[in-house]
Amino acid sequence: ELIRNPPVILLDEPTSGLDATSAMGIVQELKKFCDLGHTVALTIHQPSSQLWTLFDKFMLLTRGRVAYMGSVAGALGHFEALRLPCPQYTNPADHYIDVVNDDFRGVELDKEDVPPMTVSYVVAGFEQSDASKMMHVELDAAKNALPLKGESQGHNGALHQFLILSGRNLKNNARNPGIYYVRLVMYAMLCLVLGLMFIGVGDRDDHQDIQSRINLLWYTSSFLIFMSVAVLPFFIEERAVFLREKNNGWYSVGPYVLANAVTALPGIFLIALVCTVALIPLASMNGLGSFLLVLFLGLAASEAMMTLIAVLVPHYIIGIAIGAGAFGFFMLCQGVLLVFDDIPPYFIWGYFIALHTYVFRAMLLNEIDDDDVFNSDIFPTGEAIKEYFSFEDNDFGEDCLVIFCYGIIFHLIVYAWLSRESNGKR
Predict the structure, then answer these.
(1) Quick one: three-class SS letters along the chain?
(2) Average pLDDT in the chain
(3) What is the CA radius of gyration of the chain?
(4) Across residues 70-84, what is the average pLDDT?
(5) Model confidence pLDDT, tens digit, residues 205-251
(6) Torsion of CA 89, 93, 94, 98, to 10 degrees
(7) pLDDT (tens digit, 9 = 90+) per residue, 251-274?
(8) What is the pLDDT of residue 425?
(9) Which long-range contacts (CB under 8 A, 24 or more apart) does 19-27 make?
């Protein structure tokens, strides 16, 4: 709620249910906002004497009428003038509540030197006091100082919103094991099994081992990206939070989408790094750094696609079905199960739109050089492998750029859709 830098903060019992130490910490943080020029108004139930010293002003209500409104320090003199002084070693807050509560009157107040304890007496005493006059002066001044319609309210800028949302996302990612920790273990174990199953395949050059290398790259580019559907339920849960907070005017769509995209990158990079280290050395494959780059870009783009699906569907089961179906179609069309020249013309468009096409192609171009020589009649050179897959005219850097653009495009569509949805134009 504080992201938009509101001038007035209204809180309903922020310390309710907290122990004394936690309540003190909350009020101290709120006090810092007051020091920065914010106005913080809150209701509080039985504040401790330590909390009471932090307040600047307070309003005491009894049966809907103002019994006191003014400074904390001035209240002592006011009630003393009404012959209702705060006893020594008594929490002033408790004393004031006792004074205005005539439902359960304490025995200690039934004394001759104590005035008639009625709501009317206390209220009338305040209405005739200097504190009441000061309250009306401040109210009149506040009414005259109200901003005109459309006048700037001094909200925080997009950069500040982005930083706050990024900090919150990083904390949420760290606290929720399902977002990255469980996936990290799952990816690491799978890649370790792959490395042990294909151990040393990159050092051998006969036809069967060349085919094994290609199969390994296909499986890696397909299934590791396919497992991105696991994050979709978390994205759908976050959408409901976003819509509520956006409709309350707490932040804009742009900083939210950018913060989500940026804060996802550290976890994705860690997953890509662990997978690369677990797989490439064991399998004796080439280009560890380039493989890491391609896998990182592919995972980032696939998560961006899951984010897009999450904002479009009402339930995560539908989203998982759509995401799994799309990835399954991409795996069919990426040019491995059927090479480019054998794909039916009515499905050739799937080859070009499939994210998996560019991930697999970049991995293969990283693994195979034109001048590589193999002990195979079918694939005697690296150039022959590229010609078989119709990759001879493709470039590793261009494919990486395409994968990167996929991620950007998905996030831009997410931004456009959330802007439309949060404005109620559905």
Answers:
(1) CCCCCCCEEEEECCCCCCCHHHHHHHHHHHHHHHHCCCEEEEECCCCCHHHHCCCCEEEEEECCEEEEEEEHHHHHHHHHHCCCCCCCCCCHHHHHHHHHCCCCCCHHHCCCCCCCCCHHHHHHHHHCCHHHHHHHHHHHHHHHCCCCCCCCCCCCCHHHHHHHHHHHHHHHHHHCCCCCHHHHHHHHHHHHHHHHHCCCHHHCCEHHHHHHHHHHHHHHHHHHHHHHHHHHHHHHHHHHHHHHHHHCCCCCHHHHHHHHHHHHHHHHHHHHHHHHHHHHHHHCCCCHHHHHHHHHHHHHHHHHHHHHHHHHCCCHHHHHHHHHHHHHHHHHHCCCCCCHHHCCHHHHHHHHHCHHHHHHHHHHHHHCCCCCECECCCCCEHHHHHHHCCCCCCCHHHHHHHHHHHHHHHHHHHHHHHHHHHCCCC
(2) 85
(3) 33
(4) 88
(5) 888 889 999 999 999 999 999 998 888 888 888 888 887 887 777 78
(6) 120
(7) 888 999 999 999 999 999 999 999
(8) 45
(9) 20/48, 20/50, 23/47, 23/48, 23/51, 24/48, 24/50, 24/51, 27/51, 27/54
For residue 133, the model assigns a pLDDT of 84
Q: Is the dihedral of CA 12, 13, 15, 16 positive or negative?
A: negative
- Where do the domains of the chain lie? 8-143, 158-422
User: The tokens of 103 are what?
Assistant: 């439902």
Of 248, 265, 269, 256, give the one whose Cα is nearest residue 414: 256
What does pTM read for this prediction? Answer: 0.71
